[in-house]
From TrEMBL:
PANTHER family named among the record's database cross-references: PREFOLDIN SUBUNIT 2 (PTHR13303)
GO cellular component: prefoldin complex
Gene designation: pfd2
SUPFAM superfamilies with a match to the protein in the record: Prefoldin (SSF46579)
Family of the protein in this entry: Belongs to the prefoldin subunit beta family.
InterPro entries: PFD2 (IPR027235), PFD_beta-like (IPR002777), Prefoldin (IPR009053)
Residue ranges of coiled coil: 18-45, 82-109
GO molecular-function terms, A-Z: unfolded protein binding
Keyword Ligase: no
Full protein name: Prefoldin subunit 2
Length: 117
């Protein structure tokens, strides 16, 4: 009776750990999607602004406030932000792969096989 209880407890613990891994992977994937979308928006805005004259008026949202700037003022800031997003995206992808590898090692170590239903 005690061994069944211990086995059930171990199975419950393994299931909880597996769920935690999967949830973490899902959260990282969600962040990756958000950053990709934001990077794409930056790219579209840059493609729109670059052919325009530098002294042309444009508007930019900064901390929820719409401010008037010129194209020549906005483009460098957009490029910097786009590069930063690219770095963040690379880091998130590395983090995702590392967590995925960690999950695979954990599955091997604990002899866990996932059955898809």
């Amino acid at each position: 009776m005690a061994t069944q209880s211990a086995a059930a407890k171990r199975q419950q613990d393994l299931q909880l750990q597996y769920t935690t891994y999967k949830n973490t992977l899902q959260q990282i994937a969600q962040k990756i999607g958000d950053v990709e979308q934001e990077a794409e928006e930056h790219k579209l805005v840059l493609e729109t602004l670059e052919p325009l004259p530098g002294d042309r008026k444009c508007f930019r949202m900064i901390n929820g406030v719409l401010v008037e700037r010129t194209v020549q003022d906005v483009i460098p800031a957009l490029r910097t932000n786009a590069e930063g997003l690219k770095k963040v995206l690379e880091d998130l992808v590395k983090q995702y792969k590392a967590k995925q590898d960690e999950l695979e090692q954990w599955k091997k170590k604990n002899n866990v096989q996932v059955v898809q239903s």
